[in-house]
Write a structure and sequence with these properties.
Layout lengths: L3 H13 L7 H5 L6 H9 L3 H9 L5 H7 L3 H5 L12 H9 L18 E5 L3 H12 L3 E5 L8 H4 L8 H13 L3 E3 L10 H7 L2 E4 L5 E2 L12 E3 H11 L12 E5 L3 H12 L4 E6 L10 H9 L3 E4 L1 E8 L3 E13 L5 E14 L2 E4 L3 E2 L31 E3 L10 H19 L40 H4 L12 H8 L9 H5 L1 H6 L3 H9 L17 H5 L6 H15 L8 H10 L6 E3 L9 E4 L2 H4 L3 H14 L3 E5 L4 H6 L2 H18 L3 E4 L2 H10 L4 E4 H8 L15 E4 L9 H14 L2 E4 L21 H13 L5 E4 L2 H9 L3 E4 H6 L14 H16 L3
Parallel strand pairs: 1-2, 1-4, 2-3, 4-15, 6-13, 7-8, 7-13, 8-9, 17-18, 17-19, 19-20, 21-22, 21-23, 23-24
Antiparallel strand pairs: 5-14, 10-11, 11-12, 16-18
The chain binds flavin-adenine dinucleotide and iron/sulfur cluster (3 copies).
Length: 847
């Protein structure tokens, strides 16, 4: 339907529009939870809806609400205003308090008859099991622990994550029909080869279960404890046999990550009074989350950054540890390559040493079926998570560095997708966008200019002294009042500025790229759409990508005209108007006084001439009094034809206008109409174009008009014409005039370069009157004042249709005082032509 050139331009919008780009938080969340959506629901008090929305992506909202390191918050745009991102995790936890099993989505695809074994009931295995069960597969989870949860239950301390929360949320899997074989260690209680025989596919999600103990002298002494052994035992019994001698309550933790913080804080709760944490990294480089460090310090953990262990000394039990200064941890490429200063050492007396310097993965049960990578973890295709054995997949900490629970879940989801395709005999890669599986950078752009800083609401935490006395949860989350307050801080990041601003776009699309894709692909051939555009330029001015939907609609109009499909029937009156507007009966050319030529030509245009002949005459007189060699030309510039897309007709008409000005020898044209101004500026480059409104600033307003608005009690809201968006001198000129006249003015929120259309642009009223009416009402409704001043006669009519008292600047300048007088109504078509003819007479009368 459209030429390649037009389609190419449309394609730019289809490809580049970011209207569907997800917010920063959602893109950063490895599970892509609809954060903006659920935070908005919380702000609306719709807590049940919020938790339902969260559960569409995350089956562990209460767990993640407590322990997630929330990569989403690192990217949250609100964080760019005073480094205070939204408390997204805390809000998720708040919503999780409204979770109820009866609201859980129990839908599943029809049974496929395929069986999948998942080894490991941690977050990776559990997420995969759930997704596969939803897809209709029969899933059995094997885990050597007594209860499911993996590190969530046997690593993360209870004071951060009460076990009841894990029980409640894992219950969903059971309800969905996932079978659990607990206390079943694969490789010991069940052979991997049997699993391969019994199941169609296997997922290895065994995590990284063994803490590394550094190979330094004394690492085999009693009192040397791998962090996960400590945390696991405390998770089960809330106890751990520290140094048995009386009064020995000293402990050293080696490591600077979150596991080290958990170990140190657990030691404090076990009664250790002197807990020292040593790590290689500087305080800025430490891997632990800043808030975990803060909380540990508050609980009495002493942190020594920049030290590496040399040796542990003692008899049977640990007695002391020696450290040397670590001068740098990473090399220039960012690889781990610590360098030490051996001359700087320190020694600390202690009874227990906990190693929290990393974990290893053990999947030896798989024999040679699954290869190990260089770091000892399972080797799997990073995109599909398939291992060298086609029906064996691997996910979570068993594959990647141990990091975040939510990342392990995202890998579980990725593996489930691959397994499902494998079981269905489908390609594992086709149609997948691997860049969007897990965290990614959104294309969204959101400005924060003008946004005020609002402080983040802190959760309710027990005081440090109190919390170290027990393993009870120390953070009590947000109260309802706090959650509401916090949720309101969300900036609701999205683009769609154009759709929010433009009634046409919001009538016909949710996202412009979808509308233009449909147009491009011929699915949407509704000609009313291009012909409902005001050509106001607002979309381009608000679009961060500078897309001009108006220009595209105009391109379409031009092509429709060429094809004979437009103008539309409703445009017939405009064609009539154009014929009359160019007829000798309504046109006149007036040279300068006493001459046959005119250096300057006043060009009042059609709409003003059809509205206020007296004012046109007065302006002409005034210009002649104050400037040399002023003539006048009454003609239409042809802009309506241009707007309709009738390019050839427009060019013919405007060429005639230029010929007339050339005939007069005009060097300068003075225009009263904004559309004429834009037309001359664009198509009459050789001539100086001046707006009447900026000119009055130079020549001054008539003496008799000065101060006329004073004491009238009239406040005028100023409506700026959208065609003048980029012409500040016109805006300034109009304001100068109104000030000289003595009127109080109201500046609309959207004015000057931010102004919006009055509804008369693009000739839309002829084909889409109801849209035009809504635009007029919306624009007029922005003014608090009853009176709206315009400097375009069409805009004035729109304001009147929008139920305001519309006055043209020339009504104000030459129409006397408006105090207590009715403002002019809208003329009938006939009355307008009569006025146009009268204008001709007024101009001729000054020959
Ligand atoms: C102490 C600690 C604190 C952490 N804190 C946080 C935190 O605050 N926030 C955060 O987001 N992340 C945290 N993490 C990281 C997060 O817990 C892990 O990334 C996540 O649990 C990994 O999930 P997974 O399913 O891959 O493995 P895991 O959670 O380790 O689960 C693996 C499961 O496999 C089972 N298994 C192993 N071998 C076998 C076998 N042979 N047969 C049967 N079953 C087997 C194990 O028993 C275990 O249940 C923490 C990790 C640790 C160690
Ligand atoms: S303003 Fe509109 S057209 Fe521009 S990127 Fe945003 S949604 Fe797309
Ligand atoms: S302000 Fe709201 S929508 Fe924007 S990134 Fe933050 S949470 Fe997401
Ligand atoms: S030019 Fe104006 S009316 Fe047309 S699409 Fe853009 S904002 Fe909407």
């Amino acid at each position: 339907m459209y030429s390649e050139h037009t389609l190419e331009k449309i394609r730019e919008i289809v490809d580049g529009c970011i209207g569907d780009a997800v917010p920063f938080c959602e893109a950063a969340c490895p599970m892509h939870a609809d954060v903006r959506g659920y935070v908005g629901l919380i702000a609306d008090g719709k807590y049940k809806d919020a938790i339902r929305l969260i559960r569409e992506k995350i089956f562990l909202p209460g767990v993640l609400g407590r322990i997630c390191s929330h990569p989403c918050e690192k990217k949250c745009r609100r964080g760019d205003i005073g480094v205070q991102p939204m408390a997204i995790a805390a809000l998720k936890r708040f919503a999780s308090e409204f979770d109820a099993p009866e609201d859980w989505d129990m839908t599943k695809d029809a049974h496929t008859g395929k069986k999948v074994a998942v080894v490991g009931a941690g977050p990776a295995g559990a997420q995969a099991a759930l997704d596969l069960a939803r897809l209709g597969h029969s899933v059995t989870v094997f885990d050597r622990n007594a209860e499911p949860g993996g590190i969530l239950r046997y690593g993360i301390p209870e004071y951060r994550l009460p076990r009841g929360v894990i029980d409640f949320e894992y219950e969903y899997l059971k309800k969905m029909g996932v079978n659990f074989r607990m206390n079943c260690e694969v490789g010991k209680d069940a052979a991997f080869s049997d699993l391969r025989g019994d199941f169609d596919a296997i997922l290895i999600a065994v995590g990284s279960q063994k803490s590394v103990v550094l190979p330094i002298p004394g690492n085999d002494l009693e009192g040397v404890i791998p962090a996960l052994d400590l945390l696991r035992e405390v998770s089960v019994s809330r106890e751990f046999p520290l140094h048995p001698s009386e009064g020995a309550k000293r402990a050293v933790v080696i490591g600077g990550g979150n596991v080290a913080m958990d170990a140190a804080r657990t030691l404090r709760r076990l009664g250790a009074e002197d807990v020292h944490l040593f790590c290689l990294e500087s305080p800025e480089e430490m891997l632990a989350n800043p808030w975990e460090i803060e909380e540990a310090v508050a609980e009495g953990v002493e942190i020594h950054a920049g030290w590496g262990p040399v040796a542990i000394a003692g008899g049977k039990w640990v007695e002391r540890v020696t450290f040397r200064r670590c001068v740098s941890v990473f090399d220039e490429k960012g690889a781990f390559a610590p360098c030490y200063d051996d001359n700087m050492t320190t020694e600390i007396l202690t009874d227990n040493v906990v190693f929290a310097v990393g974990q290893t993965t053990d999947f030896s049960f798989a024999g040679n079926t699954v290869k190990a990578g260089p770091d000892g973890r399972a080797e799997a295709d990073p995109d599909t998570l398939q291992t060298s054995a086609l029906n064996v997949f691997a996910a979570g900490d068993a594959v990647s560095r141990p990091w975040l629970a939510v990342e392990a879940m995202a890998m579980g989801r990725k593996a489930a997708n691959s397994i499902d395709r494998y079981l269905k005999g489908q390609d594992l890669r086709e149609g997948r966008d691997f860049t969007k599986e897990g965290s990614y950078e959104t294309k969204l752009e959101v400005g924060i200019e003008g946004e005020e800083r609002v402080d983040r609401v802190a959760t309710r935490q027990l005081k440090a002294k109190e919390r170290v006395r027990s393993f009870d949860e120390f953070d009590h989350g947000l109260s309802e009042e706090q959650a509401l307050k916090e949720a309101l801080r969300c900036l609701k990041c999205e683009c769609l500025h154009c759709v929010k601003d433009c009634l046409l776009l919001s009538d016909y699309c949710h996202i412009p790229k979808d509308l233009f894709r449909d147009i491009m692909e011929g699915r949407n051939q509704n000609l009313l759409i291009p012909y409902s555009c005001n050509m106001c330029g607002r979309c381009e001015s608000v679009c961060p990508k500078d897309f001009s939907m108006g220009d595209r609609f105009h391109d379409m109009r031009k092509e429709l005209v060429k094809q004979g499909a437009a103008p539309l029937k409703g445009h017939d009156p405009i064609r009539v108007h154009q014929r009359l507007g160019f007829s000798w009966f309504f046109n006149v050319t007036v040279p300068a006084r006493g001459a046959k030529t005119a250096k300057r030509v006043f060009f009042p245009g059609c709409s003003l001439s059809s509205y206020n002949p007296g004012a046109v005459g007065s302006v002409f007189r005034c210009l002649r009094e104050r400037l040399e060699g002023v003539g006048a030309v009454l003609k239409c510039c042809g802009k309506p034809l241009k707007a309709l897309g009738m390019t050839d007709d427009f060019q013919n008409r405007f060429a005639a206008v230029k010929r007339e000005l050339d005939r007069l020898g005009a060097e300068e044209v003075i225009v009263a109409c904004q559309s004429c101004y834009a037309t001359f500026k664009q198509y009459d480059e050789g001539r100086r174009v001046r707006s009447l409104w900026s000119l009055f600033r130079e020549i001054g307003v008539p003496e008799e008009a000065k101060g006329i608005g004073k004491d009238t009690g009239i406040t005028l809201a100023i409506h700026d014409s959208c065609v003048t968006r980029d012409v500040p001198e016109i805006h300034d000129g109009v304001r100068f005039i109104l000030k000289e006249l003595g009127y109080e003015v109201e500046e609309l929120e959207r004015s000057r370069e931010n102004t919006e259309c009055c509804g008369s642009g693009g000739m839309i009223a002829h084909v889409n009157p109801s849209l035009a009416k809504r635009i007029m009402r919306r624009r007029a409704g922005e003014a608090e004042s009853d009176y709206v001043a315009t400097y375009c006669a069409s805009c004035r009519a729109s304001m009147v249709k929008g139920r305001k008292k519309g006055l043209h600047v020339l009504d104000l300048m030459f129409g006397g005082s408006w105090k207590g007088r009715p403002t002019p109504p809208i003329d009938s078509s006939l009355a307008s032509w009569v006025k146009r003819w009268k204008t001709k007479r007024k101009l001729r009368g000054q020959l």
